[in-house]
Structures
1.
Amino acid sequence: MTEFWEKNFKEKQEMWGLQPANSAVITSKLFAENKYKTILIPGVGYGRNAQAFIAQGMDVTGIEISKTAIELAEKEFGQSIKIYHGSVKDMPFDDEFYDGVFSHALIHLLDKNDRINMISACYNQLRDGGQMVFTTISKKAVTYGQGTLISKDRYEQFGGVQTYFYDDISINDEFGSYGLYDVSEVIENYPFYLIKCCKNANNTQDLTLN
Ligand SMILES: C[S@@+](CC[C@H](N)C(=O)[O-])C[C@H]1O[C@@H](n2cnc3c(N)ncnc32)[C@H](O)[C@@H]1O
């Protein structure tokens, strides 16, 4: 996985542009409404999504497997984001409890064991009442079913990237024990799910920081 992303960032640099993804804009508004201050972004890439949260006055910490992406983040955005270099498989990288976690388009790249471990590790780093928001590609994407089948709903495609395609059932299976309270659809370059979970709160009215 490291080699795949290193090669891509070296060759294509800021390959999704410098504007944040739609889901980052949506989530940054949700977190701002709740007066969140500290945000963890696993798979932060070169930092384009972090800017949506920083623009709302939040402190962002990232985790990123590609050294080249971290260097691009420093070039584009200076020292405004603290980024741990490593894999989400090795979380936690610190002993902080964050108000919010946002991870865009990473979890579907992992195998089942690593997906469950990532969800659990993110949940463990949330303060009580904090929220984590994941985006993941859906089975409605035209790429679903393309490439080589590795396991149920997981395909190797595009020169080596392995992608798991979620649906309502698998979202409930994997996120259901971690405060899942809302799933919606959002269009990025493909149809994505926006998956919202809250730690130890029964409804979103409990989420605002005082
Ligand atoms: C599809 S890209 C999305 C990047 C970023 N979220 C964005 O939208 O600009 C997935 C990102 O996750 C990073 N990544 C992949 N596997 C990872 C892992 N195991 N741990 C940490 N980061 C990883 C990749 O290097 C890449 O930056």
2.
Amino acid sequence: MSEAFKWVAREGSAAGSLDVGDTVTLRVHENRTTIDDTKLQVHAVGEPILKGERVAGRHALADGEQAVKSPIKFAHVVLKTTRYSEMLEWWQLVLSASVRHGNDFITFLSYDDEHHRLAIVRLPHLKERDDSLSGVEHFAFTFATLGDLFSKYQQLKARGITPYWTINHGMNFSAYYRDPDGNQVELQIDAMSPQTADEFMNSPVFAANPIGVDVDFDALIARFEAGESAESIVRYPGYSPVA
Ligand SMILES: [Fe+2]
């Protein structure tokens, strides 16, 4: 299985103030080797969702078209596999999920009041995953607390399941894993309030590095267990919240 890309942002020209048209350089690494430097131009700033109208399609309406509502939530993901039992075991463990209904073809998993958050379908004819094809890069699940995320990391590590990437994104703080098929999933916590996340994502700090900074979970767990607060551990370097 090929290693996934790691995106490492470098200092860009966006500093002090941020505006549409500012450029930053995004460096793409693979196995510690730089494979690409990409100039990015900022397309949109200053439209934090909390300050704007929560109206679906407000950027996509044609003249005279009426706005319609957004979905109220993201509901579920369905994965297709040839490794049916292996995938079921992995996902139940990773999400601490239970089976709501299952048979030889499809199993519905959930961990909350949703009837299914994840379903796994067995299709024996499938080819192996091919990372050269377009498609989903990863999807993510949010834990309630840093302690819960660290506990899940430790539980998985004890079973030989380790993340390929651990990172502080600023507004979220994450560990990325691959399931037995190579699907990539992010386990995270929200590290900022919605308002602070809005401000952060419209700051020059975020424009210069929209990816984040790598972190060492084992080292941070040691600090956490020694009594350092979750707020201190997830604090994003170089960014001071406005409020
Ligand atoms: Fe993500």
